[in-house]
Amino acid sequence: MAQRIHIIGAGLAGTEAAWQVAQAGLRATLYEMRPVQQTPAHKTDRLAELVCSNSLKSESIGTAPWLLKEELRRMDSLLLRVAAKTRVPGGQALTVDRDLFSGEVSRVMEGLAGIELRREEVASIPEDGIVIIASGPLTSDALAGEIARRTGSERLFFYDSISPIVEAESIDMSIAFKASRYGKSLDGTDDYINCPFDKQQYEQFVAALLEAQSHTPHIAEDIAIQEHAQDGTASHEPKASAPCAFFEACLPVEELARRGPETLRFGPMKPMGLTDPRTGRRPWAVVQLRQENLRSSSYNLVGFQNYLKYGEQARILRMIPGLQNAEFLRYGQIHRNTYINAPALLSPTLRLRSEGRILFAGQIAGIEGYVESIATGLLAGRHAAQLAIGGMPAAPPRETALGSLCAYVSGADPRDYQPANITFDLLPQLDEPTRIKLRRDKKARHEEVCRRALEKLDEYLGAHV
After folding, report:
1. Cis peptide before 35 (omega within 30 of 0)
2. What pLDDT digit, counting tens, does each position of 403-437 carry?
3. Is the separation of the CB atoms in 261 and 189 below 8 Å?
4. Where are the beta strands (DSSP E) in 69-126?
5. Taking the CB of residue 135, how many other CB atoms lie within 10 A of it?
6. In the chain, what percentage of residues exceed pLDDT 90?
7. Within 10 Å of residue 305's Cβ, how many Cβ atoms?
8. Which domains does the chain have, with CATH numbers?
9. Centroid of chain to Cα 331
10. Separation CA 302–CA 178 (nearest Å)
11. pLDDT grade, residue 222 (50/70/90)?
12. E-strand spans in 200-307?
């Protein structure tokens, strides 16, 4: 008889894990604490709610994000299927209507045979069966404390922030214009609304950002908590470095502005590949707005995550040309994310080395990104199903995006562990003859890495499915 499977957390990783368990014909209990206990960032009680962006990143063939999604499709990912069903225009990215997405995942989970959904907080790790901890970056303090005690490991923190959302009807389209960079999109349409700056407008905007008042996160307190844990004697693991205040790939715009006056113009406000129809020239800088839902009634400010006070956001964001009369449906926010020191704790199959019946998936394991969370949830679900029937799970090949993600989680330096997205840097290099042959063609090298990965994945699936 198969062991019972417990899945803690019904976000992206947890719901994907539950789907994989059900597809294996096994039973599981899926726990979600909302709405019994809310988090600082979630707004609904729906499963797999997208808190930050509505983008699942590039669908451009031959890129690392595309490769990871293609591997997931070949492994029957529910959430990639739902993403395709709820897609909205987003240039070359896979972007979704966040409400339809979470609504559809919730509908499937609530009607899934073999999956019992319990709306309750889990404060301690179940002592029976197989356990997947997919409680996410906003893990409750009670469970986070239990994980720390169970593993003898300190918690790590980094801060994440959310982009504002604006009502579409309040955008001044006599100034803003629709276009995708270089005219590229998945279906040939102009998927983004672009708010163009001239040089003077940009300089005034940056100056306002630098002078603005921010909310004060509890960074100092969290660092003190971690340093206190590291000074204790309970753990003999290598000490982790002090946590970064913000995840480097998701820095707030005001933090970017502090790095220099041109940083934003070469970052989220880069104007490359765009022409302002009013002038016939490339703008000095631009803010891009991405569609939020199928009704096209709201747009988010791409790359404009911030932690400014709401009054400051209202004032400064209305300095953006085309948003002078903007009605904001959501302001930018900041919240603390929690993750474990995974390389000191996990094996390449995402199992806790000290207690192999416990697996971790999603952002609690130090995974950054929606698709990356889905990926580890899929693997954890499959591995849990194998363990439940007495089998021994095997990690995907190192040459795959999935295998490389697991290799990073389990094999990075535990003294300096930080969350990671999938990139080609995580995948092993091509053999030397191929590298020499393709040394002048980066695109061809990436395509060859993708070809090799998918070939290895197909071999793996043939042997393990």
Report:
1. yes
2. 999 999 999 988 778 788 899 989 999 999 998 89
3. no
4. 87-88, 93-96, 115-118
5. 29
6. 67
7. 27
8. 5-153+340-428 (3.50.50.60), 162-214+249-335 (2.40.30.260)
9. 19
10. 14
11. very low
12. 285-291, 298-301
